[in-house]
Amino acid sequence: MPSLRMEINALSGADWNQAIAALPGAHVLQTWQWGQFKRAYGWQPEYLLWRDDCSTTRAAALALTRAAPGGLKVLYLPRGPLLDWSDGDTRAQVLAGIEAMAARRGVIFVKIDPEVPLGRGIPGTESERPNPTGAQVVDEWRRRGWRESREQIQFRNTAWLDLTGSEDGWLARMKPKTRYNLRLAERKGVAVRSAVEGDLAELYRMYAETSVRDGFVIRPADYYLTLWRAFMQAGLAQPLIAEVAGEAVAGLVLFTFGRRAWYLYGMSRAAHREKMPNYLLQWEAMRRAKAAGCEIYDLWGAPDVFDERDSLWGVFRFKEGLGAEVVRTPGAWDFTTRPLLYDLYTRLLPRLLDVMRRRGRAATQRQVGL
After folding, report:
1. Which of 4, 266, 289 has the alpha carbon at shortest distance from 170?
2. Cβ distance 251 to 284 under 8 Å?
3. Whole-angstrom distance, CA of residue 54 vs CA of residue 50
4. pLDDT tens by residue, 332-344
5. 3-state SS track over the chain
6. Chain-centre distance of CA 100, in angstroms?
7. How many whole angstroms from its chain centre is CA 302?
8. What is the distance in angstroms between the CA of the first residue and the CA of the last residue of the chain?
9. Antiparallel, parallel or unpaired: β 119-120 and 110-112
10. Region for 25 from its dihedrals, namely left if φ exceeds 0, alpha if ψ lies in -120 to 50, beta otherwise
11. Cβ atoms within 10 Å, residue 187
12. How far apart are CA 277 and CA 268, in angstroms?
């Protein structure tokens, strides 16, 4: 294969999005808008392309750089790089380019977490279907000196809904209890509508209540309101609100890019939970995603361990009931040319994050009055 040339910031805006939409694994976290959004929160975005002699884009990556203590830096490619991972020559050249960039800039490490499928289905069950390419890629990462990250940023595994075919087909893939709850929500008067920018503060309030109830940490309101507003204005996000007699009881923010939709943020209140609003909300999200040209609805997050010990187990059972299929990936991997600094940083970071999470949880509890 001819050598690929790596270009930095050669495309911007819609041109960047068009280029990456054609690549395998095209992801909303690799879009131009995601890089610009993260710029406002301390990250410096750069847009990397690998092109061949015919100027065909063979790979791409949004690369985010952030300052670390002591004047040092870290580099992160969220859900990147994007390429055909079954193409050994391309992946070798792309990895070499990323490694050289990290060494040249002296960063503590570079982190990648591309969606390289290790397989589909739940391990140890009849649904399990391994992907040999995934295992080959992980072996290559190890040979090149990459390390499995101690700190995972995104979910390692996820769950995908197939949006091809008819709505009758979607219903047939759902579990009977899910179909029952969907019909129950309709009978009990739950209604779903599109949200507008004026609804975003209400969505955040519900999200804060959800985080306190379910025990996860969220960021301050400004982060989410800025993100949701920017992606709505770019035509890449559509919030939905479920109501009972005009009262907002649940919501989600549906992101779309290329042929995929994502359920990145969901929120609900304790009120009217017995009317099952989340089932009708997801049904309407599936319809909206299909209308936007999406073939896959990524429900964003599945357990690392597929039993009740995993904190995601309850949420996963809900997604499984909708007919979703597990997609397993290797998660995040790091490359460093400064191993002593890397070991120090990765040991201290979890302690710092624990402190920040405790403070964030307490602040959210105060905000929602719990």
Report:
1. 289
2. no
3. 11
4. 999 999 999 999 8
5. CCCCEEEECCCCHHHHHHHHHCCCCCCHHHCHHHHHHHHCCCEEEEEEEEECCCCCEEEEEEEEEEEEHHHEEEEEECCCCEECCCCHHHHHHHHHHHHHHHHHHCCCCEEECCCCCCEECCCCCCCCEECHHHHHHHHHHHHCCCEECCCCCCCCEEEEEECCCCHHHHHHHCCHHHHHHHHHHHHCCEEEEECCHHHHHHHHHHHHHHHHHHCCCCCCHHHHHHHHHHHHHCCCEEEEEEEECCEEEEEEEEEEECCEEEEEEEEECCCCHHHCHHHHHHHHHHHHHHHCCCCEEECCCECCCCCCCCCCHHHHHHHHHCCCEEEECCCCEEECCCHHHHHHHHHHHHHHHHHHHHHHHHHHHHHHCC
6. 27
7. 11
8. 60
9. unpaired
10. left
11. 9
12. 9
pLDDT band at 359 (very low <50, low <70, confident <90, very high): low
CA nearest neighbour of 110 among 332, 331, 330, 336: 336
Q: Which residues face 6 on adjacent strands?
A: 50
Alpha-carbon distance of 291 to 170, in angstroms, equals 15
- Given pLDDT bands bounded at 50, 70 and 90, which one contains residue 356? very low
Structure tokens given for 58: 């063979």
**Residue 302 burial (CB < 10 Å; 0-12/13-18/19+)?**
buried
Give me the amino acid identity at 226: T
Cα separation of 31 and 84, whole Å?
18
Single-letter code of the amino acid located at 346: T
What mean pLDDT do residues 196-210 have? 97
Q: Given CA atoms 193, 203, 45, 217 in this order, what sign does their dihedral have?
A: negative
List, in sequence order, every residue forming a beta bridge with 159; answer none if it has no partner: 326
CB burial of 80-91 (b: ≥16 within 10 Å; e: otherwise) equals bbbbebebeebb
- Whether 320 and 158 have beta carbons less than 8 Å apart is answered as no
What is the arithmetic mean of pLDDT over 356-367? Answer: 52
Say if residues 280 and 185 touch (Cβ distance below 8 Å): yes
CA distance 188 to 207: 23
**What is the distance between the alpha carbons of residues 360 and 111, in angstroms, rounded to a whole number?**
25
